[in-house]
């Protein structure tokens, strides 16, 4: 049992090819134990510890890791953050310990999914999660996937340690924590429109990010932010392609889940506890999961546009002229001509713009709605996913990744699954969107 005020832990995994000063590791482990209070720099369940001396990996020489990311060690939900993301519990300047009570907002999330055998599209619920904590098995997933990406040379957090809490369980499963390493010392995610939210330190970081991206203009200008978003999307497309090339699938490719190392000039993956191995799936399901990840990324771009409220003063034509969908696909599929990518994404815009218009028209009503009600104004998720998977299939099949994974998948196969999943009415809407001629 732990002594009063301290949580008992056991180290279950420690990456053998990491070089880190013992004092630095012990300092981070003391936060995991709550021997010292974890340092939360942003709201959520992830603490952050800048290292006094950089760590490194023997299988990634000459790269310094400047900070430790510590997931599952409690919850910090302070007042004053516009984009907190924490949807449960009262606001407090003091972090709370990991709890065996359920974080209920996670259970309300639904996802577009693929059946295990790959024969149908399905609606999937998120797994239940403890408040401020993480199951040991999910902590191990983040660690194992970080190791896979490190060994394939894909920019991501690096694996360090997984621990299990001896006295904490959630639904009769052991809880744990995972410590990974970051090349970027600052904890800020790649939110190019969050200029000024995190004080002077955050402002300095984001100004450097704009410089590295080669974006001219005032970063406080919403349209300049939109251009920066497009640049990040191209980096993200290339990164998610490398993620798939490393044999992994299922990644929430929105800005909250990626960091940008301003010194190395590279985007890197940071949230890996949901990702799984493609080779563990039946062959028929593998290409569909890769296509689903692409559709998921483009859907998150669409949602970001929907809530990019500072763009509301910009004409639709001006917004449309900066295309983050094409940018993402150019990163993911560098081979096709840009004109082909433009034609592929053309139906996505008429799917999105009416919803954006409704959100703007009823902005006074939105202020009184909760998050679940606001989602009713968003683009139809399932139609959007099916549409994207059809539109990018040819690019995927022609790529080296597709030649390894496509396994006989054809467009008619996607359409048949889409019809069964969407039903006749929504399937008709999807095919109508495909037939539009868009400038």
Structure commentary:
A hairpin with a 2-residue loop joins strand 9 and strand 10. Helix content is 42%, strand content 21%. It is α+β, with helices and mostly antiparallel strands and 439 residues long. Helix 5 runs antiparallel to helix 6 and helix 6 packs across helix 13. It is built from 15 helices and 14 strands. The strands form four sheets. Strands 1, 2, 3, 4, 5, 8, 9 and 10 form an eight-stranded antiparallel sheet that branches. Strands 6-7 form a two-stranded antiparallel sheet.
What separation lies between the terminal Cα atoms? 66 Å
Q: What structural class do helix, strand and pairing data support?
A: alpha+beta
Strand/helix succession:
EEHEEEHEEEHEEHHEEEEHHHHHHHHHH
Instruction: Quickly count the helices.
Output: 15
Biggest sheet overview = 8 strands, antiparallel
Q: Can you give the helix content as a percent range?
A: 40-55%
Give the low-pLDDT segments. Answer: none
Structural key phrases:
439 residues, alpha+beta, 2 domains, 8-stranded antiparallel β-sheet, two-stranded antiparallel ribbon, 15 helices, 42% helix
Write the layout of secondary structure elements.
Layout: E1 9-14, E2 18-19, H1 22-33, E3 44-57, E4 60-77, E5 92-96, H2 104-108, E6 110-114, E7 121-125, E8 134-135, H3 136-151, E9 158-170, E10 173-182, H4 199-213, H5 222-245, E11 248-249, E12 258-261, E13 266-269, E14 276-277, H6 286-306, H7 316-320, H8 324-332, H9 338-345, H10 348-361, H11 363-366, H12 371-374, H13 381-398, H14 400-405, H15 411-435
Helix pairs in contact: 5-6, 5-8, 6-13, 8-9, 13-15
């Amino acid at each position: 049992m732990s002594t009063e005020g301290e949580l008992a832990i056991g180290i279950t995994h420690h990456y053998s090819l990491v070089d880190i000063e013992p004092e630095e590791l012990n300092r981070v482990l003391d936060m995991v134990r709550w021997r010292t209070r974890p340092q939360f720099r942003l709201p959520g369940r992830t603490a952050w510890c800048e290292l006094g001396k950089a760590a490194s990996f023997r299988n990634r020489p000459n790269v310094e890791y400047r900070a430790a990311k510590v997931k599952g060690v409690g919850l910090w939900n302070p007042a004053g953050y516009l984009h907190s993301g924490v949807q449960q519990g009262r606001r407090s300047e003091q972090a709370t310990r990991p709890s065996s009570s359920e974080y209920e907002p996670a259970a309300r999330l639904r996802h577009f999914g693929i059946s295990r055998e790959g024969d149908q599209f399905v609606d999937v619920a998120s797994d239940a999660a403890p408040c401020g904590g993480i199951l040991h098995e999910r902590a191990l997933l983040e660690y194992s996937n970080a190791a896979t990406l490190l060994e394939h040379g894909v920019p991501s957090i690096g694996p360090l340690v997984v621990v299990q809490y001896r006295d904490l369980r959630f639904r009769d499963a052991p809880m744990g924590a995972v410590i990974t390493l970051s090349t970027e010392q600052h904890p800020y995610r790649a939110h190019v429109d969050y200029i000024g939210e995190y004080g002077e330190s955050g402002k300095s970081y984001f100004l450097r990010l704009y410089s590295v991206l080669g974006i001219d203009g005032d970063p406080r200008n919403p349209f300049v932010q939109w251009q920066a978003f497009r640049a990040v999307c191209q980096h993200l497309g290339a990164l998610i392609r490398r993620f798939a090339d490393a044999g992994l699938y299922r990644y929430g490719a929105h800005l909250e889940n990626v960091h940008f190392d301003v010194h190395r000039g590279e985007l890197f993956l940071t949230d890996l506890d949901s990702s799984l191995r493609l080779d563990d799936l039946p062959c028929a399901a593998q290409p569909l999961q890769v296509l689903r990840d692409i559709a998921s990324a483009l859907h998150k771009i669409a949602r970001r546009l929907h809530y990019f409220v500072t763009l509301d003063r910009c004409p639709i034509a001006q917004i449309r002229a900066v295309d983050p969908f094409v940018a993402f696909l150019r990163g993911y599929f560098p081979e096709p001509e840009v004109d082909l990518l433009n034609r592929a994404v053309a139906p996505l815009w008429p799917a999105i713009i009416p919803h954006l218009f409704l959100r703007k028209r009823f902005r006074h009503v939105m202020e009184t709605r909760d998050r679940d009600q606001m989602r009713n104004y968003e683009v139809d998720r399932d139609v959007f996913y099916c549409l994207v998977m059809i539109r990018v299939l040819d690019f995927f099949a022609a790529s080296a990744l597709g030649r390894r994974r496509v396994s006989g998948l054809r467009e008619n196969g996607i359409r048949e699954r889409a019809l069964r999943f969407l039903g006749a009415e929504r399937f008709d809407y999807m095919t109508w969107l495909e037939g539009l001629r868009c400038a």
